[in-house]
Amino acid sequence: MIVACVFCQSFLFPVVVCLSCSETMQSRESIPGMVNIDDAAVLAMEDLMTEYLPMCRAMPKLELHAHLNGSIRAATLLELARERDEDCTELENILKKDKRSLPETFKLFGLIRILTTDHRVITRITREVIEDFAAENTIYIELRTAPKNNSAVGMTKRSYMESVKVGLDIAAPVSPIHVRLILSIDRRETTEAAMDTVRLACELRKEGWDIAGIDLSGDPAIGEWTTFAPALMFAREQGFPLALHCGEVRNSEDIRSMLAMRPERLGHVCCLDNYEWEVLLASRIPVEVCLTSNLATQSVPSIEEHHLGHSRDWSPLILRYLVSIGLSIVIDFYMIFRA
């Protein structure tokens, strides 16, 4: 059974309430203090464990917004850092924080990029991510990742994706999930590098890979819309659905340009003004929302002030997802159930 799903076009970008829920990431980690939540959240969790958790564990789930680098086990990150003789102090401090600002979150992703620089590691983390989602009874996942070049180890964007596929193939016999891939354009990239990602997606699709679409993500404080727009328009011309991270920070040019492009999905939309909200609501573009992520990165001041409140009477239903290491899907599920 898939809960509260209404498919409007295809299995890729449905208008759907996708309530992915699971045990907390803490339950999968061996590092004490990895996720600390306040007293109210602890009480909510205790209530949930007796009332909803068995159902949450058993429920088949769709995961429509899983970043490969955002889903790595914290224990694996620390192990990789120690293998490289890196000073783990900064990494441990960021991972253990109750809340991380958005700049700190992207600093963490920067550290992850340093640690995930060879084919062996890419294959390993892909396998582990799929295993973890399978353990949470996820039956369908769109895994997004930005293909990377690393000439020091002979890595190209294609060989990066081939390493991802090896990880998927290893996990497949024991993790029966329908996995599709979304190739991400990183906001740090040039126009030509972004075009390379779309061209690679075209090649892989032609070879039979299950490519779900093209994403735009990365540090929202970096890059200009005019840099990525040509690649996104090219992707659309090639028939790829678009999923764009939008409004993670206040950037009217980006936000309004994305709304005008009318992608198949938008992510976050935390920092829209009233006019932009009206445009979004009128457009009926589905939005991917993560309550705990928005709170943990301080994108919203409180759950009561979350922009989800703008959408209570909105027909294109909210899509739910987990977006970062150490966050609790189950708290999101609790909040929605209790609303």
How would you describe this structure to a colleague?
The chain has 339 residues and is α/β, with parallel strands linked by helices. It has a single domain (5-338), classed as Metal-dependent hydrolases (TIM Barrel). It has helices spanning 39-51, 53-58, 74-83, 89-96, 102-115, 119-135, 157-171, 191-206, 225-237, 252-261, 274-283, 291-296, 329-338; strands at 5-6, 15-16, 61-67, 138-145, 178-186, 211-217, 242-246, 265-268, 287-289, 319-320. The chain has an eight-stranded parallel sheet. A two-stranded antiparallel ribbon has the order 1-2. A hairpin with an 8-residue loop joins β1 and β2 (15-16). It is globular, with a radius of gyration of 19 Å. 42% of the residues are buried. Mean pLDDT is 76; it is low at 1-37 and 312-339. One of its GO terms (biological process) is nucleotide metabolic process. This is Adenosine deaminase domain-containing protein. Keywords: Hydrolase, Membrane, Metal-binding, Nucleotide metabolism, Signal, Transmembrane, Transmembrane helix, Zinc. Its cofactor is Zn(2+). Belongs to the metallo-dependent hydrolases superfamily. Adenosine and AMP deaminases family.
Brief summary:
The chain has 339 residues and is of the alpha/beta class. The protein has one domain (5-338): TIM Barrel.
Helix and strand arrangement:
Blueprint: E1 5-6, E2 15-16, H1 39-51, H2 53-58, E3 61-67, H3 74-83, H4 89-96, H5 102-115, H6 119-135, E4 138-145, H7 157-171, E5 178-186, H8 191-206, E6 211-217, H9 225-237, E7 242-246, H10 252-261, E8 265-268, H11 274-283, E9 287-289, H12 291-296, E10 319-320, H13 329-338
Parallel strand pairs: 3-4, 4-5, 5-6, 6-7, 7-8, 8-9, 9-10
Antiparallel strand pairs: 1-2
Family: Belongs to the metallo-dependent hydrolases superfamily. Adenosine and AMP deaminases family.
GO molecular function, one term: metal ion binding
Organism: Physcomitrium patens (Spreading-leaved earth moss)
